[in-house]
Design a protein that fits this description.
Length: 187
């Protein structure tokens, strides 16, 4: 009887060990099948650009909820005051290290405005911060070590009707084009 209990206990231990090894192999396969875009879901980026949603310079943090969908928020400065932005990005990966995508969201900060004088038009900043919607297209590259770079261009659209905007001295009928470059890392 004692020998039978030992054999049954030994068989159960052997089965439990085999099941545990199978679980480890399955989790190793899942990790190996993940692309660089799926393995690291958090990103931290430093931005520099002209009239971007986070201003002239800023930082942002992003989280990939699902491989093509990213939530992102950032803060920065326009040179005179602060700027904030929050939005979502949709990404189409082109292999392991390159992606293209579209972004949209809300921003809050100072926009360039056209200040009209008698015979000249000059650019000046709005007297107060303005909430705006934004939309951009981007190209993103990622290294195997997790370094990330993004080039993007889009438009800011003030959500207040009384804001007259300009870009480099040219009136833009409520839309402010922007361009930017972001560099950072994924975690």
């Amino acid at each position: 009887m004692k020998a039978m209990v030992s054999v049954i206990a030994g068989a159960l231990c052997l089965l439990a060990g085999a099941a545990r090894a199978q679980d480890r192999a399955a989790s190793a396969e899942e990790v190996a099948s993940q692309t660089a875009w799926e393995a690291r879901r958090f990103s931290l980026l430093a931005h520099v650009g002209l009239y971007t949603p986070v201003g002239l310079v800023g930082v942002s943090a992003g989280y990939s909820v699902a491989p093509p969908w990213i939530l992102e928020a950032g803060v920065g400065t326009t040179g005179l005051t602060f700027a904030t932005a929050a939005g979502t990005r949709m990404r189409l990966t082109l292999g392991d290290y390159l992606a293209i995508g579209l972004a949209s969201g809300l921003a809050y900060g100072h926009l360039p405005r056209s200040c009209s004088w008698a015979f000249e038009s000059r650019e000046c900043d709005s007297p107060d911060a303005v909430p705006s919607g934004y939309f951009d297209a981007y190209l993103e590259a990622r290294s195997a070590q997790g370094f990330l770079s993004r080039a993007y261009a889009g438009v800011l659209a003030p959500l207040r009707a009384d804001v007259e905007t300009a870009f480099l001295g040219v009136r833009t009928a409520g839309l402010v084009p922007y361009v930017g470059l972001a560099l950072g890392t994924t975690l």
